[in-house]
């Protein structure tokens, strides 16, 4: 199952609303459960460098079914996944990417946000996911 | 000067309307005048392979300030620009990419569409550009 | 708005003068506000490996509207942006890249310098930017 | 032996003069005999897509010690080098790249030009090389 365009746009609209409340300029990307881009916006004055980061946060989060910040705790020097960022044509492992899981616990995609401090990036991504209904992740969410 | 998000979304909405009229499923990308992604949608059931093609049509069209189909006439075997597709990390030189030029003749971005036969791709891209007001290109449109 | 070739060459000339004063051999790159290369020189005997570093310092600095060294403080192990270098086909996050901002506070491009110790690289980049008039960055410089 | 920065800049100045005479906006790249970038300019209003093409014309011409247009005759469908453009991270095999050979017949670098019709691109590249003294190529020029 994949996130529909209708849902992707709903998530982006909610994320953007949150970005405006935080007075930030964000790039917001949604990928489906194949980690393929579904929808994207770059708000005016957002960093050009955030385009790729937002997309990579979404793909990273989808690739492993977890928030990017969680993965980043495991990829620090001395930790089990040190250097994982070199895989998959580049991962981004700091906060701002969150999986989208449907009401049956199935991973249907992910959202990635970049453009401010990572706390804001993550808050905006969460706002996008929340509008679709599910933020609690099952232990190993996966797609059908 | 760069296309704003408001304009990019207006162009995508018009392109999508045209895509629905043609009963097609399209990927639609808008880049700014630096050829950096501004907005993107993939309609449900559109080919995953069209994501990259739509984006590359937009960047190709921006890179050279002309419709991708025009460039493609020059890149055929035996023609002056044969093999140009090998530059810039890959160009797409068949129809479906159109520059966005403002009322002063300045290139502000480009739109790229992929998902159907190239005539439809081009028609959908044109529909997107038309809503922003300008479809006639100056001889050498460029950004300020 | 983009840096003109006249300005880019003025910046490179000033940077090169500084490089000679410091008795260094530098690669010096200028990109416009779309992070696309505008002008470049490699001084005789400069490291070949510095070509790509100088260009990446310029693009990195343009992508995020800040000096590369600032970004590098945030990308250390345990810091919020650890691993950001994996985005955008490779960033360089140690000193030597500086944004070029015009008198209205608009980002018009960036300069990147590589070839010596990072203190020298940064000093040469700053010398290049200074001749264009603005070295104080607004909080979120951006292009129009 | 490698082209010096002094010579590279002399070649670029001559090429640029020719570009202005032809009323064109060009990207002009010079590489050394290792095919590594030595100097580059993008004239105002030149296509952004020409940056990479100018550099690839210079590297292609250096890689094989011949004008890019010569190579392009051999890479057409049915010809011996069909598809050679897929090597070396992308070659450009239409006119506009010319080797720089010193008075002893040694290849010291190459110049690549992009931004207009290929006849103009080649003429501008030739004007750049001519100012360094040698345009007649030995059968297999090479570097020491």
UniProtKB/TrEMBL annotation, chains A, B, C, D:
The UniProt entry, under InterPro entries, shows: GlcG_carb_metab_protein (IPR052517), PduO/GlcC-like (IPR005624), PduO/GlcC-like_sf (IPR038084)
The name this protein goes by in its record: Glycolate utilization protein
Organism expressing this protein natively = Methyloceanibacter marginalis
The record ties this protein, via SUPFAM superfamilies, to: GlcG-like
Pfam hit, one: HbpS-like
């Amino acid at each position: 199952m994949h996130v529909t365009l209708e849902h992707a746009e709903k998530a982006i609209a909610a994320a953007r609303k949150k970005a405006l409340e935080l007075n930030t300029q964000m790039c917001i990307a949604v990928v489906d459960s194949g980690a393929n881009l579904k929808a994207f916006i770059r708000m005016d004055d957002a960093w050009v460098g955030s385009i790729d980061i937002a997309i990579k946060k979404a793909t990273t989060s989808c690739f492993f079914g977890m928030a990017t910040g969680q993965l980043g705790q495991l990829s620090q020097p001395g930790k089990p996944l040190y250097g994982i960022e070199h895989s998959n044509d580049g991962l981004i492992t700091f906060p701002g990417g969150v999986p989208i899981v449907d009401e049956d616990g199935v991973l249907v995609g992910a959202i990635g946000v970049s453009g401010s401090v990572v706390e804001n990036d993550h808050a905006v991504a969460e706002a996008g996911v929340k509008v679709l209904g599910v933020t609690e992740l099952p232990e190993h969410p996966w797609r059908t």
